[in-house]
Every structure is written in structure tokens, then in C-alpha cells.
Write a structure and sequence with these properties.
By secondary structure, this protein is an all-alpha fold. It has 3 helices and no strands. The chain starts with a helix and ends in a 6-residue tail after the last helix.
Length: 75
């Protein structure tokens, strides 16, 4: 994979080739962006989990045999 700076220079959209310092600074920036994205994703996962934990589950409707015995049949 070619760095964007080199690609720009090779396609003549940039006058001078990139410097080592510029390339290193860009790598540091990329790592910072990746770390921030990972932190945001983890925070989102935690928030979704806490929302799910706070939700009340729907009531379960179970019919017992005794309930069926008390039902009147209407003709």
C-alpha cells in the first residue's frame, strides 16, 4: 500500500516528495484515529448493553393445567 503523500507526488498533484517526518507524523495520526475509533466503539457497546439490561422483558404467559380447569365453555 502506497502512502497518500507518495501517491500524490507520483501523480504530479504534489510538487515535492513527502519527507520522513511527514510520513511519521501521518502514521502517528492514523494510530490516534484508530485508537479513538476503538474507544468510541467500546463506549457504544457498553451503552447498548446498559440499555438492554434496563429494558423490562415482556411478561411470559404460561397456561397452567389448573387455569384450564377454571375456564367455562360457552355453548
Amino acid at each position: 500500500m502506497v502512502a497518500v503523500q507518495w501517491s500524490a507526488w507520483l501523480t504530479h498533484t504534489r510538487r515535492d516528495p513527502p519527507t520522513i517526518e511527514e510520513l511519521r507524523a501521518d502514521l502517528v495520526r492514523q494510530k490516534r484515529v484508530q485508537m479513538n475509533a476503538a474507544l468510541l466503539e467500546a463506549k457504544e457497546r457498553e451503552e447498548r448493553a446498559s440499555v438492554r439490561a434496563a429494558e423490562v422483558p415482556p411478561p411470559s404467559y404460561s397456561i397452567k393445567q389448573t387455569d384450564l380447569q377454571n375456564v367455562r365453555h360457552v355453548p
